[in-house]
Design a protein that fits this description.
5 helices, 27% helix, alpha+beta
């Protein structure tokens, strides 16, 4: 099974699947807060605290500042069967993604980026939590999440947490984060894929648009994730 990502979607008005890319800006509403979540390649983020190198990484990632003051939280079960709240990571920077444990498309790429980001962070990784939420309601078991994590080297990270729950619970989280999911019991799961960078209070600082990349581009993404997870602190 593969997972198809779409570049633009709103929770209440799903759009047809499209390939992920860095080309278009996108906007959507989450919890009444407007988020400008796509930065076209070549557009500079106007943040005096961001260096030229960071600007380059931001443009590669389609990353922009989160507009709004929303503090995210959820209560789900991690891959080890432990019930946890997102609030358990208060005081740390949290990078949130949405992944399908049966995906063979972009999710393994995201996994490589996170593994690389952890290496880039070094000892600073203790201040960052990498969190993923399941988007496949037909594969909700913790065993399936563990298998994905083990297959892609994520289970070796001390700061990795993969969450699942009932379909009702997962849908509530998808809605909170503005993630569009088109379930399919026998084929591709179509869903949007964003990186959320949360600060120590759970407030989002940045949003990045995941993309299909390879080779040295994965290393650049890993570096970008490391940089902006630190800036979110």
């Amino acid at each position: 099974m593969t997972t198809t990502e779409i570049a633009q979607a709103t929770p209440n008005a799903p759009e047809p699947p499209k390939k992920r890319g860095l080309g278009g800006a996108l906007g959507y509403v989450i919890g009444g807060s407007l988020i400008v979540a796509g930065v076209a390649a070549g557009v500079i983020i106007h943040d005096r605290a961001i260096t030229n190198q960071q600007n380059n990484l931001a443009n590669i990632m389609g990353l922009s500042p989160f507009v709004g003051t929303q503090q995210f939280n959820f209560n789900l079960t991690n891959e080890n069967g432990q019930k946890m709240s997102l609030a358990a990571f208060r005081g740390k920077s949290v990078v949130v993604q949405f992944m399908d444990p049966k995906c063979t498309d972009i999710c393994p790429i995201v996994a490589k980026e996170l593994v690389d980001a952890d290496k880039q962070l070094g000892s600073a990784a203790s201040n960052v939590a990498f969190v993923a939420v399941n988007v496949n309601q037909y594969h909700e078991s913790t065993a399936e999440l563990r298998q994905f994590s083990q297959s892609h080297g994520l289970s070796n990270l001390k700061n990795w947490y993969y969450f699942t729950g009932s379909t009702k619970q997962l849908k509530a989280v998808w809605k909170e984060f503005g993630i569009f999911v088109q379930p399919n019991p026998t084929g591709d799961v179509v869903h949007t894929s964003y990186y959320y960078f949360l600060g120590p209070t759970g407030q989002a600082k940045y949003v990045a648009q995941a993309a299909r990349v390879s080779g040295s581009q994965i290393e650049q993404w890993g570096k970008g994730i490391a940089v902006f997870s630190q800036k979110a602190l």
